[in-house]
Specification:
Blueprint (H helix, E strand, L loop, with lengths): L1 E5 L2 E5 L1 H6 L10 H29 L3 H11 L5 E3 H7 L4 H13 L3 E6 L2 E9 L1 H21 L6 H14 L32
Antiparallel strand pairs: 1-2, 3-5, 4-5
Helix pairs in contact: 2-6, 3-6, 4-5
Length: 199
């Protein structure tokens, strides 16, 4: 692949890529699939940049932290086992541990031991955390609407949901909540997880 300049704008020359497509070891994308893939990458990058930027500017909350607060707010007693919260947040356990530690510093989340498993922990959204979420939600929702739903039709919303569910493997079923008891599986979320990410 090479890059050429036409009237001051850079364009991609895919001749090199087309040559690679003669290699039968891979299931190469068709021209339509390539277009769809690159459009998807551009769309998601633009969307998440806008959403992340709005939350940062107006609320000082990274989108990943906001997602944690939302998942806890929707759980019974505003509480989830850490492993369940990691799954609901599509985050690794160590990454989640880092985020929850930062949310604890803000007083928005608290952790307690799981009553049925000494090694397990449960994260709970505090009243202060719920208030922070409540304050951030209107601006966030408006940004999501402006960046996504105002740009597509009702039919496309339905298609987007179906496509997203298929890609995310939604047929695997829900992981469920941790209402009052916890299973025996350990969360294994120690201090080592905090080193994986920096603020």
């Amino acid at each position: 692949m090479s890059i050429t300049t036409v009237e001051g704008c850079q364009t991609l020359n895919y001749l090199g890529y087309a040559w690679l497509m003669t290699d039968s070891r891979a299931r190469w994308l068709s021209a339509e699939e390539q277009h769809a893939w690159r459009a998807f990458l551009a769309a998601t990058a633009t969307l998440f940049s806008a959403v992340e930027g709005q939350l940062g500017r107006e609320s000082g909350i990274p989108h990943g932290y906001y997602e944690i607060l939302v998942n806890l707010s929707e759980a019974p007693d505003r509480s989830l086992r850490m492993s369940q919260l990691a799954e609901a947040s599509t985050s690794s356990k160590s990454r989640l541990s880092h985020a929850v530690a930062r949310l604890e510093e803000r007083g928005w989340v608290e952790r307690r031991d799981c009553p049925s498993d000494r090694r397990g922990q449960v994260a709970r959204l505090t009243d202060a955390g719920f208030a922070a979420l409540d304050a951030a939600a209107p601006g966030h929702v408006e940004q999501v609407r402006r960046s996504l739903f105002d740009r597509i039709s009702a039919d496309q919303v339905t298609q987007l949901a179906a496509i997203s569910t298929a890609v995310a493997g939604g047929e695997q079923g829900d992981s469920g909540f941790c209402p009052g008891t916890c299973d025996a599986e350990s969360d294994d979320l120690g201090e080592a997880g905090l080193a994986e990410l920096a603020d």
